[in-house]
Amino acid sequence: MRQISLKLTDEEYKKMESLRGSKTITEYFKMLLSSHDETITNESVAFQRLFSDVALIRDTVRGIPKQKDLLALATFMTEVSSIANTPAYANHQDKIQQLYQTLTSQIQTGE
What we know:
The chain is mainly alpha-helical. It has one domain. The chain is built from 5 helices and no strands. Helix 3 runs antiparallel to helix 5. The longest helix is centred in the middle third of the chain and has 36 residues.
């Protein structure tokens, strides 16, 4: 088992004290770590669903003849995905950019 030490300002300590309620400091920080893991898992699942939806939209709108409209949709979806849940996408900016480039390339070439 490992042990950690943490320095907090008086303000941070007071905030932690009020947030932890009747839990011990150890229980409180273990709960924070556990809830963080759940959040990351949920955000990852949501991220995968979003890109599945984008792929479905791309496949659905392939027959639309107006490239300009499709490129506007691709730009919109990219922007929405990057601002909708910033913490979830912070570590995926390269992937978002790559998917955007792939989508716009496929729209332009009609593939």
